[in-house]
Amino acid sequence: MKCVTMFRQGSHRWLAVTGDPGSGGKAVDTNQFVVAAGNSGMLLDPGGIEVFPAALSALTQEIDIDDIHYILLSHQDPDVGSALPLWRRVCRPDVTLLVSSLWTGFYAHVDAAAEITPIPDEGTRVKLGEDVTLQLVPAHYLHSAGNFHVYDPEARILFSGDVGAALLPKQALDTFYVTDFAHHIPYMEGFHRRWMGSPAARDAWVSLVSRLDVKVMAPQHGLAMRGDDVKRFLDWFAKLELGSGVAAMRAER
Q1: Which residue, among 89, 15, 24, 91, has the nearest Cα to 51 in the 3D structure?
Q2: 74 Cβ partners below 8 Å, 6+ apart?
Q3: Which has the closest alpha carbon to 142: 230, 205, 234, 77?
Q4: How far is CA 57 from CA 1, 93, 243, in A?
């Protein structure tokens, strides 16, 4: 895996750990992110067991693992946090684990010894270093019932979890940013139609994010979007028909 610097201003940085670690094509590719300020950092969606060795190796080329003070788990999926026990072995003993209050009891099945700080439904703020404050933004039902994204108003970066995700062929992973939005849509469309089941939640999220000053939108899967492509995505997502799996329940038997 490789570590991409998305933003740097003094000690304030955003890092993306991306690229397939060689799982034989069975595991969905994931992006892991770190936002750091001073000697304090937050690891966003640390990933699954399969990617842990490669992700740790790439990340420690850029940041001291003792600087990770927080680990955010955006929701409950195995690709988000099944490697949590492994990360806790290498991170500082007092690392703060953040997840929706809905999922604290479920993560005990992954790591019963973990002390998790629940995030309230409305979200919260987390301060890194002296000057950086991150906003944990609710994104419930997109696709998880308890789901959070992370917005950095200084860097103008939004970690958007599964919203904006794309399932890409290996040859399309050579870059980190979308270069042709229209060409990128087919890689997002099927995923969003199936995994995003609530138009009401989508509309609320689009309204919320449209009020933020987002320069870069960074999903957990696929490529990041920046500049005008952020608005292009919001406009496209706002009109997309969701919940394609419902059709199977309506079929005559």
Answers
A1: 24
A2: 44, 45, 80, 139, 144, 147, 148, 149, 150, 159, 161, 162, 220
A3: 205
A4: 8, 20, 38
Q: Where are the domains of the chain?
A: 2-244
Q: Give the Å distances, CA to CA, from 85 to 1, 26, 59.
A: 20, 22, 17
The per-residue pLDDT for range 189-200, each reduced to its tens digit, is 999 999 999 999
pLDDT tens for each residue of 151-194: 999 999 999 999 999 999 876 667 899 999 999 999 999 999 99
For residue 78 the two structure tokens come to 């195995």
Distance between CA atoms of 150 and 132, rounded to whole angstroms?
13
**Based on C-alpha coordinates, what's the Rg of the chain?**
17
Distance between CA 226 and CA 213 in Å, rounded?
Answer: 12
Superfamily in which the 2-244 domain is placed by CATH: Ribonuclease Z/Hydroxyacylglutathione hydrolase-like (3.60.15.10)
Cα–Cα distances (Å) from 126 to 37, 46, 204, in that order, read: 12, 18, 23
Gap between the Cα atoms of 128 and 67, Å rounded: 10
pTM: 0.95
